[in-house]
Automatic annotation (TrEMBL):
Taxonomic lineage of the native organism: Bacteria, Pseudomonadati, Bacteroidota, Sphingobacteriia, Sphingobacteriales
Domain of life (superkingdom): Bacteria
InterPro entries: ADH-like_C, ER, GroES-like_sf, NAD(P)-bd_dom_sf, Zn-ADH-like_protein
GO molecular function, one term: oxidoreductase activity
Pfam family, one: ADH_zinc_N
Organism: Pedobacter cryoconitis
Protein name, entry field: NADPH:quinone reductase-like Zn-dependent oxidoreductase
Residue intervals of the Enoyl reductase (ER) domain: 10-296
């Protein structure tokens, strides 16, 4: 079969021939892969920095994808073998059947972004109807999805921050408020903008993809805000650290405001959380996408071009590899 083959850590996978995968037992089945997204975890495993990096070579890359079972059923699954290939092995009883009318490219692009948005909002922040959400660093792929999911879960208002003004403007069409917060402003302007929002529409949830200095500014903005019946606390849920892995946090900040700081990632989610994600959350999001109610920007490339496009930046679009 044809596949994206990695010959050593730290180099790009290449398009080439690889032996057809063979299921090892009755609990494994073949999938004919049609599309798979290239995500940070895929790149990290191939570069050797992830704890699940490849140990033997050559190896087929690709963590998950969508395709057809032997009977033609459209499914999403995580692969036992690499998924950027014409065929892969998946668990027999651990896949999600896709809506018949869903675009397979969209289905391949969604899961990782949904994990980074829906689980943070629902399982960690316990979002409720009417909540006001601030998404810090919303211009990325996951941020785009988070805006839409927050509205789907009942957020009354979704405010967004980011450095890319054009991308921030686009988020308005996905449900974000018109008062966007540019992170290219002076610190004092950013703090005042958040304080003004928090005064008029008390923030319940901060969904954070940046950490670092932008989070320090948000904490300063929330400092000293008194608790009232409409806003018992602010839950800050950090999902990423694109602006830095550490922050300066003074004790007085936490003592002067009702703030809870949480993290959302595989290590913070229980087995029940993951089961809920696979059985309820992700199927729901696939159906929303099939109904045209959930969207994201995607850049498509053919598997033949995997080496050239592997490390390219497509300006906030998810790279999806198509396989004939």
């Amino acid at each position: 079969m044809k596949a994206a083959v990695l010959y050593q850590l730290g180099i790009n996978p290449v398009y080439g021939d690889f032996p057809d995968p063979v299921p090892a037992g009755e609990d494994q089945i073949l999938i004919h892969v049609k599309a798979t997204a290239v995500k940070n975890i895929d790149k990290s495993r191939a570069s050797g920095v992830h704890y699940t990096s490849y140990k033997s070579f050559p190896a087929v890359v690709g963590f998950d994808g969508v395709g057809l079972l032997a009977d033609g059923t459209k499914v999403y699954a995580q692969g036992i073998t690499g998924m950027i290939a014409e065929q892969a092995i998946i668990p027999k009883n651990n896949y999600i059947t896709l809506p018949e009318n869903i675009d397979l490219t969209m289905a391949a692009a969604l899961p990782n972004a949904v994990l980074g948005a829906a689980m943070a909002l629902k399982n960690r922040a316990n979002i409720k109807t009417g909540d006001v959400v601030l998404i810090n660093g919303a211009t990325g792929i996951t941020g785009q999805i988070a805006v839409q999911i927050a509205k789907h879960y009942g957020a009354s208002k979704v405010f967004v921050t980011g450095r890319n003004i054009e991308a921030l403007q686009k988020l308005k069409s996905l449900g974000a408020e018109k008062e966007i917060i540019s992170l290219v402003q002076e610190d004092e302007e950013i703090i005042k903008a958040i304080q003004d929002i928090h005064h008029q529409h008390p923030i319940n949830i901060v969904l954070d993809y940046l950490w670092g200095h932008p989070m320090e500014l948000i904490l300063k903005s929330l400092q000293g805000h008194s608790v009232d019946s409409s806003n018992t606390s602010v839950k800050i849920v950090t999902v990423g650290a694109m602006a830095g892995e550490s922050i300066k946090l003074e004790s007085g900040t936490l003592r002067s405001a009702a703030i809870e700081i949480l993290g959302s990632g595989l290590g913070s989610l229980s087995e029940n959380d993951i089961r809920h994600f696979n059985t309820r959350v992700l199927p729901e999001m696939f159906q929303l996408a099939a109904d045209g109610k959930l969207t994201m920007e995607i850049h498509e490339e053919k598997i033949e071009d995997i080496e050239a496009v592997w490390n390219k930046d497509f300006n906030g679009k998810r790279l999806v590899i198509l396989i004939d």
